[in-house]
Design a protein that fits this description.
- The structure is a homotrimer.
- The mean pLDDT of chain A is 97.
- Chain A is of the alpha+beta class.
- Chain A has a five-stranded antiparallel sheet, with helices on one face. Chain A has a three-stranded antiparallel sheet with strand order 2-7-4.
- Helices cover 26% and strands 36% of the residues of chain A.
- Chain A has helices spanning 22-32, 57-70, 87-96; strands at 2-10, 17-20, 37-43, 48-53, 99-105, 108-109, 116-121, 128-136.
- Chains A and C meet through β3, α3 and β8 of A and β4, α2 and β5 of C.
Chain lengths: 137, 137, 137
């Protein structure tokens, strides 16, 4: 069994943004040299998410609108009494979830035809990290 | 360490449907011959989900109603400008999540008494796949 | 490859409650003696969740309020025809998700600075279990 760990860094220009991770993950897998296993892709922050869906800009707009409906930016979160203004980002992170496991088969990310992995930034404009840990052989 | 990979195929008659996977997963585990490890059960589509909950028909009705409230079928999703009409299915998939990890202990799926694994189809009536990948020894 | 499995038990005084798991998970990891791998933390019940977020009481209040908005306690769930009154707890469990994977690197839980693991009880006042299974070497 082998483990291979890398960390990705992001500093998005916008407060809310999506970063398409799949090409980076393929490069990491090539470096890992693991043929059968699991790749964990996990945001190391509580105001970001990682999810799998389609790389289609219209859908991404729908997703942002939807997240804003279910976990809206608001002034009156209790969390804001700490001086923060990112209460919505914490809730969006819970909704989207902060991590996914990508199966690795025969040396490739075993994703479906339309599945792509995205990092969702809910409170950016500063450095954030994602751990990519592959376990297998 | 060993890895065992199988793919399940579904072609639901209804557009939205649940398929109870637990008995299939038990059979896969028997074939895998893995005694300690993790079984990843992951939809390979962006309009489907996999989740763990109770096998109770009334609850399943509640779940469908609830999903329709939080991620409703609507005509005006931006994604529909691509010719699709399944914007809600993408959002439902994000809400439910597309995968679970089932622990494997002493050669058995180590689920709680009432925990069952379900495939949730949000845009069916065509072939869809689920990867079941078990890692362990 | 090694696997280490422990079960945590909770009997919350309140029906809805959060339990901070991180210190318990660190102790389990020390006993497991695994340096590189994945730790699965998974509720064994369908009316509970496990999630990663900030250990900040104001945020926790926001989370409870938010969960009550999106998956409210109601009398008229179909599930209640079985004699239960915890339909909302099932939906809250689906929303929060019942498990997380924590990466283990160099013998430590490889969490971000503010990431903490919580057990979310949605229907307590009785014994509930969480499986903590670590796989690695």
């Amino acid at each position: 069994m082998r483990a291979h760990t890398e960390y990705l860094s992001f500093h998005t220009k916008k407060r809310r943004d999506l970063v398409h991770l799949t090409p980076m993950l393929e490069q990491i897998l090539a470096r890992a040299g693991i043929h059968e296993g699991f790749m964990l892709v996990s945001a190391m922050h509580i105001t970001a998410g990682v999810f799998v869906n389609d790389d289609e800009p219209g859908l991404h707009e729908d997703i942002w609108k939807w997240l804003e409906t279910l976990a809206p930016f608001r002034a009156d979160y209790r969390h804001h009494q700490t001086g923060e203004d990112n209460g919505d980002a914490h809730l969006k992170s819970m909704l989207v979830h902060h991590e996914v496991i990508v199966p690795v088969t025969k040396g490739r990310l075993d994703l479906g035809t339309w599945q792509r992995v995205f990092y969702a930034e809910f409170d950016g404009q500063r450095y954030k990290r994602v751990i990519v840990k592959t376990l297998g052989e």
